[in-house]
From TrEMBL:
It is found in: Cell membrane. It comes from the Bacteria. PROSITE patterns: MFS, SUGAR_TRANSPORT_1. Its main location: membrane. PANTHER family: MAJOR FACILITATOR SUPERFAMILY MFS_1, RESISTANCE PROTEIN MDTM, PUTATIVE-RELATED-RELATED. It is a multi-pass membrane protein. The chain crosses the membrane at residues 29-50, 62-82, 91-114, 120-141, 148-168, 180-198, 229-249, 264-284, 291-313, 319-341, 353-375, 381-405. InterPro entries: MFS, MFS_dom, MFS_trans_sf, MFS_Transporters, Sugar_transporter_CS. Residues 1-408 form the Major facilitator superfamily (MFS) profile domain. This is Major facilitator superfamily (MFS) profile domain-containing protein. Keywords: Cell membrane, Membrane, Transmembrane, Transmembrane helix, Transport. The keyword Transport applies.
Amino acid sequence: MARTHPAHVDAAPTQGAPGSPPTWWVWPAAWPVTAVFVLSNAATPLYVLWQRDIGFSKGTLTVIFAFYIVGLLGSLLVSGVLSDRVGRRPVLLPALALAMAACLIFATASTVAALVVARLFTGIAVGAVVSAGMAAVTDVAGPHRKRLAALLASCAMVFGAGLGPFLAGVLSETLPAPTVTVFLVEAALLATAFLTVLRMPLRRPTAPAPGARAWIRVPGVPRGDGLRLVLGIAVFGPGITATSFVLSLGPSLLGGLLHTTDRALAGAMAFGMFLAATGVQFAVRRLRRPTILLLGAVSTTAAMAALVTAVHTSSVPPLIAAAVLAGMGQGAGQLGGLSLLNSSVPPQRLAEANAALNVGGYVPAGALPVAAGYLSDAIGLTAGATIFGAVLAALATTGGLIVLAGRRRIR
């Protein structure tokens, strides 16, 4: 496939090379990714309130969480290809509007069904952002700043994912009507992201080649980039599954270990996890991509060892260590995977490639925590978390071995 570049620009640049956006735009271009990911996990500390008011089990809680994954995966089947063909803006603006609708539903939710719908809408919005939004950051950064674009897009995702539960935890403990206040604040953040996308200097896409593949399909990468995708998924998948487990069942684990339902504490643990995911990316950004991926695999394996230790000793420090290490595993795996794709995939396939990476990551992130939640209901939280930890540690170790085997075939 010829790797041509788009020829038209929606908004005229004000500086830099002819036809390229101004350098400073690469930073605000990442804001819509952050704003939507704030929503993605903002509900985490609030589930204890909904469980108290509505009444549902840990298994139901993980199902609510899984509907987010269902929406996200369904969105990824469409949004990547759609973004590459019609442009980033026509995908991002409806996604942000849907995210604001999710805020309204969360703020007024009084049934499990309402929570399911809100999570579904959130997942659809996130699917659009991880494909079109991250590709937009790369588009704005230009061909000479691809490493910076991958770093900013990846950090925007994990920082937003951590900021959401932290803000929700603090606001819900300090202000009245917590489930309303939290989502009003998030709706305001999304409104600023909407305005940012309207102003963003994005290029128009090139027309699809004659005989182009279907619009709705399992996303993939161009011929020759398959190994890069496999290596990214092999590490990113276990990493994001580990953080998904902490998000969905972390408050339950805190309740069992500390006998507390403090929402600020649950939010702080999630924030620390994603702060580690952000920090590790800046720390390793100059390393070779296979090395970054190997660090991700090692971190996820260590996280599972700490998780098993925490549930068997009823000790909080190992649980916090598990959250931090899980964040590092996701952060390194995500940065390594995105960097591999950014370095090779042409702009007209980049959103689809980002979608493919996230499909590979979110499938286990949706399935395994749900299984662990129901298993914990059946045999107890300690046994369920132990089995989950062992399975995920095996997957992370396998991912590391796959990277070792393929590292000489990529740059």
